[in-house]
Amino acid sequence: MASNSSFHAPSRHGFVRVAAATPVVHIADPAANAEEHARLIRQAGEKGVDLLVFPELSLSAYAIDDLHLQAALLDEVERQIARLAAVADEASVIAVIGAPIRNGDALFNCAVVLGGGEVLGVVPKTYLPNYREYYEKRWFAPAASRSEDAVVLNGERVDFAPGLIFEATNRPGFVFAVEVCEDFWAPLPPSTRAALAGARILCNLSASNIVIGKADERALLCASQSARTLSAYVFAASGWGESTTDLAWDGQATIHELGARLAEGERFAMHSHLTVADVDVDRIGLDRLRNGTFADCARIEGEAATVVPFEAGEGPADALIRPLDRFPFVPDDAARLDQDCFEAFNIQVQGLMRRMTATGSKTLVIGVSGGLDSTQALLVACRAFDRLELPRTGILAFTMPGFATSEGTKSNAWKLMTALGVTGAEIDIRPAAEQMLRDIGHAFANGEPVHDITFENVQAGLRTDYLFRLANQNHGFVLGTGDLSELALGWCTYGVGDHMSHYNVNGGVAKTLIQHLIRWVAERGLVGEAATPTLHAILATEISPELVPAGADGAIQSTQSIVGPYALNDFFLFYISRFGFKPSKVAFLAHQAWGDAATGRWPVGLPQGERVAYDLPTIKGWLRKFLIRFFQTSQFKRSAVPNGPKVVTGGSLSPRGDWRAPSDSSARVWLDELDANTPES
Ligand SMILES: Nc1ncnc2c1ncn2[C@@H]1O[C@H](COP(=O)(O)OP(=O)(O)OC[C@H]2O[C@@H]([n+]3cccc(C(=O)O)c3)[C@H](O)[C@@H]2O)[C@@H](O)[C@H]1O
Ligand SMILES: Nc1ncnc2c1ncn2[C@@H]1O[C@H](COP(=O)(O)OP(=O)(O)OP(=O)(O)O)[C@@H](O)[C@H]1O
Ligand SMILES: NC(=O)CC[C@H](N)C(=O)O
C-alpha cells in the first residue's frame, strides 16, 4: 500500500496513529475475549489506527492462576489468534495481543503481533514477577529459557524472541518493539535495547493491578522510559472484568512521546474503549540524530536484533490527534505557563546578577521605549538590583524620542521609569540624527520625506551610541533588549544599533512569551504594584520599531505587517530550530494548530483580539518570508550577538549556544521543499 498522498494527512508528515486498547475482560474465556478484541480492532481501523496494543494475557485474562495450565484453554487461545489475525488484516491494523503460548515443554507469557493476516512474531516476557502478590513463575518460563527463536502457531513457524523489531517497509520510521508489564520495572528494560536497535515506538502489554499511588508510578515510568530512550511509549493495562478474587484493576492506558504525555484513557471504566494518539516518529528520528549520546550508547550497549518487516496501512488521513500548542513557547496549560514564566524570569535575573557581580557594576544603562522588550529588560534589571540589594537608582534609564516616537509610548516609558523608581532621563536624538543625516548627504536633511533604511538605522544607531557612552561615563554596562524572535528574523539594526549591548537578558526569550512574562511579573507584584497599570497599557500597545513616522492616514509602522505575525514566526522558529522539521511539515502543523480559532485551548490571559485563525495560504506566505530571513539574510547578525542566557528549549540563537550556521548561505533548499510539498489551499 502506498502512503497517504494528501498534504492534510498526518501520515504524510511522519505520524503513526497508535492506540492502547482497554477491553472488558472475560475470565478464562478466550472466545469472549476475542470477540471484545475484534470489536476494538474494527473500531481502531475506522479511526485510522496503525498500531493497536492490548493488555497482558488479554486473550485468556491475567489473574486466572492455575487455569493457565489447562490444555483446553491453551488450544482455544491458539485458535482465536488465527481468527484475530484475519480481523486485524481486514481492518488494516497491526494488533498486539497478549496470550499464553506453549513452546517446547514450557509456557510463556507473550505478546503476539498480528499483521497482514498472519502472526508477524511472538515476544515472550523477559522478567516474570514472583514477589508480593505475583506468582508468575508457577506457570510461566522466562524468555531466556526458550530453546529456540521460533514457535509453531496454528501450523506456521514464526519468530519467537524478546527484542524483536517490527519495521514497516512502506512508512519510514514506523518501527516498534514490545515488552510485557514487569519488563519495564526492571533496571534495564528490554525496550531500552529495542530502542537502541532502532525501535521508535515501544509497546507495553500490562496486567498491573491497582493499589493507591500505582497509577502515578506507572505514568512516571512511561514518561521516563520515553524520555530516556527518545521514543514513544504505549502502555495498556487490564481493566474491568479481570478477577477481583484478591486484586483490583483500573485499566490505565497512556501514550507518551519524548517524556510528554500525549493521551490518557479513562480509568475504572466498565466498557471497552480505545486511547488514541498520533506519534511523531519523524520527530523521534530527528531528535536521535541531534542527540549524539543516543548513537554512542547504541554502539556501546546495543545488540544485534531480529528485524521483522511488515507492510503498514496508509495511516491517518483526518485531523491530527495529539496536543498541539498554538504557541510552542507559551503553554496553554495555566499551571505549566506559570512554571515557565517563573523559570524564564529567574533565568534572566540570574544571568544579569552574575554579570553584575562579576564586573562589580553598580549601574546599568538601558534605553526605554515604552515597547515590550525594553519593558521586560527593565523589569529584570529591577528584580536583579532588588536581589543584590542595590538601589534601583543605579538603573539609568533613558527614553530617547526620535522622528517617529509617539506620545503614547513616550509617556508610558516615563510612567514606567517613575513607578519603578529608577533614574529616568530623556535625550532627544533628533538634533544629532539631523546632523548625521546632513553629514552623509541624506535627502531627509533637505526636508524630503525619505524614510529609508538609512533613516531608520541612523536613529537606532544613535540611541546605541548614546547608551554605550553613557555606560562609560557612569561606570556601568548597557543592558540589551532584543528578543529571540527578532534575532530569528534579523529584525534589529546591526552592530551600531539595538543589535549590540554589553549583556542581553532577552536574547533567549521569544516575543510571544515576553508579553506573558510582563503580565506574570505585574500580577505577582514582583517589582512593586505602582507599575502595574502602565505594564497593562504597554501590553495593549501595537508592536512597532517607531523609526518611520506615521503616514498621512495616521497608520504607524507595524512590525507584524512587515515581518508577519509573531505568533506564526515563533511557531516556525520552534519547529525549525529545535527539531529541524521540513518546511512543509511546519506548514502542516501550523495549519493544524492555527486553522480554526474555535477549537483547542488558548493560553490564559491572551487578549481576545489575538485569538485569530490563519489559513494555509497565509501560513505558507509568511513561512516563505521567515525561511528567507532565517536561513539567508539574518544569520550574520546572530553570528555576533552579545552574551546572554539560554532560556527556552526551542533554542538560543547564539553561535556559542544552540545554533551555528554560516552567514552566507542560501534558503533555496527550504523554499523548494516548501513549494514542492505544500499546496496553495
Ligand atoms: N551576510 C552578511 N554579512 C555581512 N554584512 C551583511 C550581510 N548581509 C547584509 N549585510 C550588511 O548589513 C547591513 C544591513 O543590516 P542592518 O544595518 O542591520 O540593516 P537592515 O537589516 O537592513 O535594517 C534593520 C531592520 O530592522 C528593523 N529594526 C531596527 C531596529 C529596531 C527594530 C525593532 O523593532 O526591534 C527593528 C528596521 O525597521 C529595519 O527593517 C547592510 O549594510 C548590508 O550590506
Ligand atoms: N524611544 C526610545 N527611547 C529609548 N530607547 C529606545 C527607543 N526606541 C527604541 N529604543 C531602544 O531600542 C530597542 C529596540 O527598539 P524596539 O522598538 O525594537 O524595542 P521595544 O520598543 O522595547 O520593544 P518591541 O520591539 O517589542 O516594541 C528598545 O528595546 C530600546 O532599548
Ligand atoms: N503483570 C506484571 O508484570 C505486574 C508487575 C508489576 N511490577 C506491577 O507492579 O504491576
Automatic annotation (TrEMBL):
The active site is at 56 (proton acceptor), 125 (for glutaminase activity), 181 (nucleophile). It holds the Pfam family NAD_synthase. PROSITE patterns: CN_HYDROLASE (PS50263). ATP binds at residues 367-374, 481. GO terms for cellular component: cytoplasm. Gene3D superfamilies: Carbon-nitrogen hydrolase (3.60.110.10), Glutamine-dependent NAD+ synthetase, C-terminal domain (1.10.10.1140), HUPs (3.40.50.620). Deamido-NAD(+) binds at residues 457, 486, 491-494, 637. Keywords: ATP-binding, Ligase, NAD, Nucleotide-binding. Transmembrane segments: none annotated. L-glutamine binds at residues 131, 208, 214. Pathway: Cofactor biosynthesis; NAD(+) biosynthesis; NAD(+) from deamido-NAD(+) (L-Gln route): step 1/1. GO terms for biological process: NAD+ biosynthetic process. Residues 16-281 form the CN hydrolase domain. GO terms for molecular function: ATP binding; glutaminase activity; NAD+ synthase (glutamine-hydrolyzing) activity; NAD+ synthase activity. Its EC number is 6.3.5.1. InterPro entries: C-N_Hydrolase (IPR003010), C-N_Hydrolase_sf (IPR036526), Gln-dep_NAD_synthase (IPR014445), NAD+_synth_C (IPR041856), NAD/GMP_synthase (IPR022310), NAD_synthase (IPR003694), Rossmann-like_a/b/a_fold (IPR014729). In the C-terminal section; belongs to the NAD synthetase family. This is Glutamine-dependent NAD(+) synthetase. It comes from Brevundimonas naejangsanensis.
